[in-house]
Each structure stands twice: as structure tokens, then as C-alpha cells.
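Predict both folds.
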Amino acid sequence: MLLEVANLCVSYGAVTAVSGVSLGVREGSIATVLGANGAGKSSLLRAIMGLTPATGEVRFAGEAISRWPAARRVAAGIAMVPEGRRILVSLTVEENLLMGAYPRHDRQIAADLDNIYDLFPNLARRRHAPGSVLSGGEQQMLAIGRAMMARPKLLLMDEPSLGLSPLFVREVFQLIRRMNADGLSILLVEQNTRLALQTAADGYVLRLGACVAAADTATLARSDDLMHAYLGGAHAAPTVHGP
């Protein structure tokens, strides 16, 4: 496993957002985390990234990183595309992209920037324009490009289809598959269950902060319990286990 998470817990005061979640991302694969609003998905990603205090164990490439600050996790090869894009709208497209390369000290930054522009021609055309003029889909592309400028081994993606038109949703998921085919491992949080299950190999379902199902995505797609958990039904928790 490239990423191993064991018994992760996140609390905000008296509120428990993530309760004892364990999951893994195999090297070169895509894993997805599903669940309704408030299930704890974003808190889980933020804890893995080191952006919010948590208990439990996080291991990356065989190393225990639970005590590492976020900057060290980025340097080790983890990057995140946050929910809502969170680009710096007062900076230009190129300045936003270069922010992603901030931890790097190698000579390949210019070449990687050119690669991002090849991947996203719209960004190339607007490289000197402020982020504020981009459409929602273009901002999402910019957020992905910014994360890729860190040269990650593992990319955490939080609701990449949120607020996008169907056309841009298709483009984003085509990009996710392309990045994975190029060897990038991805942990995908996504409310579009159908697309997430079609894209990922392994899946985890959260409900009220707890993992209630874990299996390969083909198994989850056939499980009635998945829909009960995803929709927050009153039925018993799923009993699907693996992978």
C-alpha cells in the first residue's frame, strides 16, 4: 500500500467528524471515499494531508507520517485538490501554478509548467490573467494543475465535480483516468457515486464519520447496502468487507 490509514479520528470540540476510519490506497490505483454531506469525507482528507489535528496512524510509502506537518507531507509526495478549488483569484493563472511548485528546488519547474499548459490549453491562453476571470471548470483545472506542480505520488481530490457543468465533469474524470494511467495514485472523495465507482478500483463508504463499507468498487456497485448508507437510510450498516 502506498497510503495506509488506521483508526483515524478527527474531532472538533465535542463533535466527532471522523471515527476510527481505516483505509488504503494501492500504488498506481484509484480509491474513492463516498458518503452524504456531513459524513466526514473532507475532514478525513484534511487529516491525511496534515491540515487538521487527528489521532490514529497514517503511513505513506512505508513511513509513519502522523506527526509530520503538512509541508513535509507535500515534500514527501502528497498533494491535495481541495473542495471549492480555493485558487488565489487575485493572482494570475501562472502565479497560482507556481504556488504549487513552492516546495521544490529542482530545475524542472519550467518544463512542468509547460506540461500543464499542454494539458490545459485554456490555462495557457490565460496564463497572465487573474484567476478571478476563469470559469468554475477552468478554476478546477487550475487547482488540479497547481497540485500537479508539486510532482505528487499521491493526489487527494475533494469533490472535483462539485458545481461543474456536465461537460466539465466529463473532462475532469477523463483527466483523473489519464493521470492514473500515467502512474499517479489517487484518493478521490466524490458525491457522484456512479462516476466514482466507474473510475476507482477500491471504495469506502462513510456514514456519520464511520466507515460502513469497504470493498472493490464492482462489489460496492452491486450492494443495496451502499445506497442505504450513502442516502443515510435507517437500515443496518453494510456488511461488505475487503479489499
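Second protein follows, with its predicted C-alpha cells after the sequence.
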Amino acid sequence: MSTGQYFAAGIEERPVVVDRVAELRWHALADDLVVGRGDVAHRPDGRTFLSINAWHGAVFDRLAEAMLAALPTPLYTVVDEAEPEVVAGWERAGFTVGRREWEYLVPTDPRLTRLDAARPPSGVTVLPVGEAQDGPLRALDRAVREEVEATAGWHTMPAEVLPRPEGTTVLYSSKYAVAEHNGQYVGLVRVAPVTRQPRIGLVAVRAGLHRRGIARALLARVLGELHSCGIERATTEVNESNEAARALFEGIGAQRCGGNLELVRH
């Protein structure tokens, strides 16, 4: 569903026809007028995500019915938790909550984050965004992925950092700051340079070096650089079940500003 007004009032009395107009797209038509659209996206991790754009619940339901009849499960979708009508539409189609991701606004001012005194632990050096070497960064990416798979599972990570077909989550090394220890990269922060409010897409430290202040030192460097460029806030998303990440960001003054639900139909 969306706020897009594809049709006038009275759609309830008009016959709606759903056509598959392309391999990954469906249209709902009433009197030859497009009153809703459904799309399919195949994510790099192999999962299939659906989206439906229809202002009327009946049209939404017709599109969902047609798409579900044509597609193999499991199927996924992501919705804003602040849109209960959209959530209800997917629930009518048999989807349930698979995970919840909270969105935070993160201040960059060291006086607010209290990161001005954060220093890397002894023997650790933080390289700023853009200075990471591609090879060692990809090696760290693989190591982190293996550690996540052995614990929470990589499926708990945000969609943007899920493995690509070639088996890496690193597309542009210029977006990363890294922590180096004894000649090896041991921690990273990914920063997407979105206009006005950059997004912190991933914070990760090798398992054997947790709770030593490396993540805080990485964030201190990244947020400090953003602040020096005149950027007051960044955004980030954290899985609701990731208590360590929530504590990390809330501990530097991040404020929750919304959230998304990933719904699944098996």
C-alpha cells in the first residue's frame, strides 16, 4: 500500500482485473485504469522480496493473491512499522514478522556522543574512511561473515550487507574505516555517504577482540570526520535482537526514530 492515489472513490463497486505484465511485475486494472502495482525483487542472498503499491485494501488483496499463487515460498517484504494498514494487508496474505529493525539518529558532535576521549586500545590503529586496502578489507569481511554465521547467522544482517553471488559484502572499499592490529584488519565501519544524513551500515569487530573499545574507537573516528564536515547526524539500523549493537549506539546518544518490519511467508 502507499499514499499514491491511483483511482477515485467507489473502487469497491468496480471489477478489478490483475495481470502479470512482466516477469517481475503485476498490474491491477479497473476500467483500464491502473489502480495498483506489485513488484518482485530477487536479493543477492537468494531471497525474494515483494512490494505492492495500492491505496485500497481490496486491490492490495487481489494483487497479493495473484502474486502468491505464482511465486514459490518463502517470500519476504519490508514495511515501515508506523504504517499499520500496510502491515495488516501483508498479514491478511499470510505473512508474519520475521525480524524487526530499529532506526536511530546518531549525533556526530563529540560533546554529545562523549567519544571525544575514546581512543583505540594499545596496539590498535584506526584508519579513516577511504584508506583501507582492498585485499585485507575483503579478508576481514570473510572472517566476520564466518563468525556471524557461526553465531547469530548472516541472515540477521541488514539486506545491504548480505553476501553477493561472488561471496563478498564489500563493493566499495572507499566506504569503510578499519581498525588494524598487529598488521591485520580486525574491525570495520561502513559509511554510506547519503546526502545530509550519512548512514552507518555496518559495525563489526573480530570475535576475539570484543569489549576492548575498538567499535567505539571506530565510531569516534567516523563520527568525528562527519562532524568536521558540518554533518550533525547520521542514521543507522539495528536488529531489535542485537542487544550489543543497541547498547553501543544508545550509549553514544543515538535516539530511536522509527523502525521496519521484515515479514515472511513460508
